[in-house]
Amino acid sequence: MKDTTMTTNAPQPREHSLSIRKPYFDLIASGAKSTEVRVGYPKIRRITPGDTLTITCADESVTTRITAVKEYKSFASMLDAEDTAAIGGPDMTHDQLVTAIRGIYPPEKEALGVFALHLALMPDKP
């Protein structure tokens, strides 16, 4: 009898989790923020499109699917290429966004590389 089992070398989607500050959590949960900015820690570098990302803030969580991961050399180059409203919500100006990101990540962290994680909200599990 011939074995008809098919195998694939395609990697299976992985699950990741990140903690986030409350105002940004609320924007993601509402769908207003669809791009999360992070620096190139090893944990972030392992995230790939198709993976799931559970974002938590205190006792709240929301699950998203990664639709794209884009790496940039600096916050400036990332902000020039990405939709700033998708990063900071519709009410943050470009300058406010720069100030907010620089308040979170000092220059030595930016030097690790800048990642724009594109997110899609996943439906709640029953």
Quick synopsis:
By secondary structure, the chain is an alpha+beta fold. It contains 6 helices and 5 strands. The protein has a single domain, classed as Roll (Archaeosine Trna-guanine Transglycosylase, Chain: A, domain 4), CATH 2.30.130.
Q: Write down the CATH class.
A: Mainly Beta
**What is the string of helix and strand elements?**
EHEHEEHHHHE
Total number of beta strands: 5
Known CATH architecture: Roll
Helix content: 25-40%
Write the layout of secondary structure elements.
Blueprint: E1 15-19, H1 22-30, E2 35-39, H2 42-45, E3 52-57, E4 60-72, H3 75-81, H4 84-88, H5 94-104, H6 107-110, E5 114-121
Structural description of this entry:
With 126 residues, this protein is α+β, with helices and mostly antiparallel strands. It has one domain (15-121): Hypothetical protein (Archaeosine Trna-guanine Transglycosylase, Chain: A, domain 4). Helices cover 32% and strands 29% of the residues. The protein has 6 helices and 5 strands; from the N terminus they run βαβαββααααβ. The protein has helices at residues 22-30, 42-45, 75-81, 84-88, 94-104, 107-110; strands spanning 15-19, 35-39, 52-57, 60-72, 114-121. The chain has a 5-stranded mixed beta sheet with strand order 1-3-4-5-2. β3 (52-57) and β4 (60-72) form a beta hairpin. The longest helix has 11 residues, at 94-104. It is globular, with a radius of gyration of 17 Å. The model is unreliable at 1-6 (pLDDT under 50). This is ASCH domain-containing protein. It holds the Pfam family ASCH. Residues 18-123 form the ASCH domain. InterPro entries: ASCH_domain (IPR007374), PUA-like_sf (IPR015947).
